[in-house]
Amino acid sequence: MDVVTVRHRDGIHFEGEPHVVADARSAVGDVNIVSHAHADHTFGSTTSSPETIVCSAETAEIAKARSGAEFAFVESTPAIDLVPAGHVVGSRAALFEDASGRRYCYTGDFSIRDRAYLEGFDPDAIEADVLVMETTYGLPKYRFPDQAELEAQIRDWITDTADRPLFLFGYSLGRAQKLQWLASEVSDRELLVSESIDRVNRAIEAATSLSFSARSYGDGELRDLSDEIVVLPSNQARADWVERTVEAVSGHKAGFSGWAVDDGFLYRGNYDVTFPLTDHCDYDELIETVEAVDPDVVYTNHGFDEAFADVLETNYGYRARPLKRNQTTLEEFC
Ligand SMILES: [Zn+2]
User: What is the mean pLDDT of residues 42-61?
Assistant: First the structure.
C-alpha cells in the first residue's frame, strides 16, 4: 500500500506518487500547488522547473505583478482539482487522491463566507479522507460578526466621517481591495492607494472583470487632503511618515483584521477604530468546515494549530494534529 505522509518543510509535502507539494517557495515536487498569491504561499522568483505547477490564472498574474515571478502553470491536472478557497482573488483549495484511493483536501488559506466579489469555500462540496487546513483563528475568542452586519458598520463609519481624510489599513492583496470596494459603494470620495496596492489592483483587473477606481498617489499628494480615502498596507500603520501625515491632515486611522478582536491590535497600529474584517475563517467556521468535510484525519497549519487540533480530538472525536509536530527528523538534524 502506498504510504503518504503530510510534512511541513519548505511547503507542505504529500510524499506519495506523484510527490505533491503545496505552497513552497520553489517548485520542488512532481506537482506543485500554489494556493494563492500571498508572499508566504508562492514562488519568490521565476521558476523554470520542468515540474507541473498548478494554480489559478489569477494567482499566476498577481504573483507576477507582486514579485516578478513568472512560471508556466496549468489550472488542473487529471489528478488534481482546484476549487475556490474564498480567501483572496484567485485562491484555490486542492483536491487529489493517492494511489490507494485516499482522498486529500488541502485548503490553503480559506474563508467560507461569500464576501464582496468573492465566493466562499464550500465545505459541503468536499469529499476527503485527509483534510489539511489552515487554522489561523483556531481559538474560541475569534468569532467574527455576521458579514453583512460588519460591512454595514464599515460603510456607516465611512459615511459618518465625510469631514476628514481616512486612512484604511489592510494587506495589499485582499483586504485593500475589499476596502476600496466598500468605500466606493457608499461614497464618491477620491480613493488613493499605495504603489504596492495599485500593482495588485492592476493585476486583478487584468485577470478578472473587477475594476478599481483608486489612483496611486504621487509625491506630496498626501499633504493636502480634505476628504480623500487612502488605503495603505497594514505594515505601514506605524510608519513615521504615516503618523506625521495623519496628524497634519487631522485624518482618522482604521485597522481591519481578525486580530481586531484583541485589544492590543488597536494600540499596535495606533488606530482610531478597528473592524474584524478578515479573509480567513473564524473559529466557528473552522469547526463547521471540519464537520461538513468529516474526514478521518485533520492536519492543522498556521495560527492556533495545536489548540485547534486538541479541540477537534477532545470535543469532536477527530484524529487531528498540527503539521508542525510532524516535521521530518532530517530537518531537525541538518
Ligand atoms: Zn493568505
Answer: 81
267 and 172 part of one domain: yes
Residue 122 domain boundaries: 6-141+280-333
Of 268, 200, 264, give the one whose Cα is nearest residue 232.
Answer: 200
pLDDT score, position 4: 66
**In 3-state terms, what secondary structure has residue 149?**
helix
Give 36 Cα–ligand 1 centroid separation in angstroms: 7
Q: Which residue has the higher pLDDT, 2 or 239?
A: 239
Residue 1 lies in a domain: no
Distance 221 CA to ligand 1 centre (A): 31
Both 270 and 329 in one domain: the answer is: no
**129 Cα: distance to centroid of ligand 1 (angstroms):** 24
Q: CATH code at 80?
A: 3.60.15.10
pLDDT at 326: 56
Within the chain, how many helices (H) and strands (E) appear?
A: 9, 17
Neighbours of ion ligand 1 (CB under 5 A): 38, 109
